[in-house]
Amino acid sequence: MSLLKEQLKEVENYTKQALDKYIKGDLCINDYKTAHEMYSEQKDEIQRKIEEQERDKSEYQQHLDYGLTFLENPSEYYEKSDIETKHQIVGSIFP
Predict the structure, then answer these.
(1) Which long-range contacts (CB under 8 A, 24 or more apart) does 55-62 make?
(2) pLDDT per residue over 21-59, tens digit each?
(3) What is the model's pTM?
(4) Cβ(1)–Cβ(50) under 8 Å?
(5) Rounded CA gap, 91 and 75, in Å?
């Protein structure tokens, strides 16, 4: 994810540089609009990827937390579980 965040900073830098060039008169309005649109699309795509990774990490973390908690005290989970979950627990131990 740090690579994506670096890419996001880079695109934001390019956007700022394009604006600076436009303000100085080194870039015409059409070129600025084209660059701004392109960088905005890249920025949106990178942000979408970052959000997707954070969501995936969150889901993964939930499963990991549950699994580690289960491994700390499987007998307690077994005793409190419904019959279907008990079958799954036994099935995971004795396939």
Answers:
(1) 57/1
(2) 999 999 999 999 999 999 999 999 999 999 988 888 878
(3) 0.60
(4) yes
(5) 14
Length of the chain in terms of residues written: 95
> Residue type at 8?
L
CA-to-CA distance for 24 and 16, rounded, in angstroms?
Answer: 12
Structural domains in the chain (count): 1
Residue type, 85: T
Any residues with CB less than 8 A from the CB of 35 and at least 6 apart, and which?
14, 15, 18, 27
Please tell me which residue, 55 or 20, carries the higher pLDDT value.
Answer: 20
Domain residues for 37?
2-93
In this structure, are residues 85 and 70 in contact, taking their beta carbons and an 8 Å threshold?
no
Structure tokens that stand for 18 in this block: 């394009």
Question: Side-chain half-sphere of 13: how many Cα atoms within 13 Å?
Answer: 6
